[in-house]
Amino acid sequence: MTEADPMPKNAILKILRVMQIILENCQNRSSFTGLAHLKLLLASSDPEIVVAALETLVALVKINPSKLHMNGKLISCGPINTHLLSLAQGWGSKEEGLGIYSCVVANEGNHQGGLSLFPVDLENKYGGTQHRLGSTLHFEYNLGPAQYPGQTSDKGKSSNLCVIHIPDMHLQKEDDLSILKQCVDKFNVPPEHRFALLTRIRYARAFNSARTCRIYSRISLLSFIVLVQSSDAHDELTYFFTNEPEYINELIRLVRSEDSVPGSIRALAMLALGAQLAAYASSHERARILSGSSIISAGGNRMVLLSVLQKAISSLNSLNDTSSPLIVDALLQFFLLHVLSSSSSGTTVRGSGMVPPLLPLLRDNDPSHMHLVCLAVKTLQKLMEYSSPAVSLFKDLGGVELLSQRLHVEVQRVIGTADGHNSMVTDAVKSDDNHMYSQKRLIKALLKALGSATYSPGNPARSQSSQDNSLPVSLSLIFQNVDKFGGDIYFSAVTVMSEIIHKDPTCFITLKELGVPDAFISSVTAGVIPSCKALICVPNGLGAICLNNQGLEAVRETSALRFLVDTFTSRKYLIPMNEGVVLLANAVEELLRHVQSLRSIGVDIIIEIINKLSSSQEYKNNETATL
């Protein structure tokens, strides 16, 4: 592409979107080598390209909640940290009257004023000093040693300080790059300060346009989200919070402002709070810089955010509020991080009333909200995993029944037996692979949450709701249709069944009446699906069934242990066995150690496996010798 050619915007946006999806699903993001290209795109004169580049960077640096307490979570953005700092600073500081909250509210108010019959009053309110400041290019730089973009020096101490001051930038006819070139030529701006100057030009020109201002508000928030999670941005963050000590409160105010701030900006502000909390919890060094982050989850702010979450959930199905899913998603991500990052998170969050706001999501059957339901279930599961009182509250509010019923509906949908009353999924959606993937993720989360809710260490007693048999029925359906669910869900279902029996062996009779043990044994004798997780859970499931005499007899009569012969001698199990042979061997050893009556059968099967493997090897050797 030559300089005369226009930038292929659509192609760039599509490439960035693909990169974003890859990074969101990538396990080795630290090996990413495209930072130099993204750095160039941050200087684009098209704000949509800048937004897309920043969204790609967000996917790159995002801290996985499941790895919050592991080493090596933060990814370096070294070449672009100074660019991110310039973009994150937005129009200026709160002390100047140009904090992120006041700028967003002023421009949204100005936009509303433009739709009013009498916009002059609003213009006087919002368009005075603040609009003059926001649309003025004021840039200070030092001709001495390079400092952080936008950093100023004391005029009395340095004679090298240069100031560029141009008011009413929105009236300039030239484009951003032309204005930059004029300033560089006129004021002899060094290369290291030019991106910061370009950033100030872009923000100043955007201030008096509500639409453009909204885009640059997104750019500012996205830049902060990336910067706060960049592993080598300590100096930049220190400088940022020195100039913006009230930034956290500014973000919380944005989230709370339901009437005056667009939903997309509120969601980004919430994601910024979550990113800050994740970085704070993941690194001791980062925690020192972000010491003020503890106020995010302080009692008062936590209650405020829970109130916002409750309102957003109640508005999910409102046709007048299309931004609610974005807000709910951002808030759920934050509270999941809060539960995982707090040492006493279970008790703390339970005390703040976190369980009740999430329960309505378990009843939400809108297919487009499935990812929100899954996130809510994960949050509840982690909450109950850490807190026995939270489990008690969850059970008292009927949460276990809601989980069981939702699991039953989703299982029926997957196998195609849901009736028209319960199912809201059309044939077109059923055929969608993405939807099926989301359904299976939700089923896994539901099974895990049921394990924590019904049989957690602090609540060993069996659920008092004996009328609801939807959980055992769902387990039977999974065992009977294992090919449709896969090894991961099979593993989760076997784990739940085993925990139920281990915690309360007397419930075996009830489970047997509902066909759960028989369905599991049939799934084993018919041939375990070639999945590592499916294979290693079978001995545990058989061991749980053998705690009851009827179950032990069923295992012996069906020769269920013979699944080991195919597992160790069939080619189709070669790959899963390569991944889990040690785990499977340990599980079999534990089964035979605890169930003495199966030892002789187990020994015979092991000898048979050895003989088959050795005879196969002898055949190969003879065949080779013949050739």
From TrEMBL:
Keyword Chloroplast (UniProt): no
One Pfam family per UniProt: DUF908
Keyword Transferase: yes
Recorded GO MF terms: transferase activity
Domain DUF908: 10-93, 150-313
Domain DUF913 residues, every copy: 376-621
Domain of life of the native organism: Eukaryota
Keywords carried by this UniProt record: Transferase
Record's protein name: E3 ubiquitin-protein ligase UPL1
Organism annotation: Zea mays (Maize)
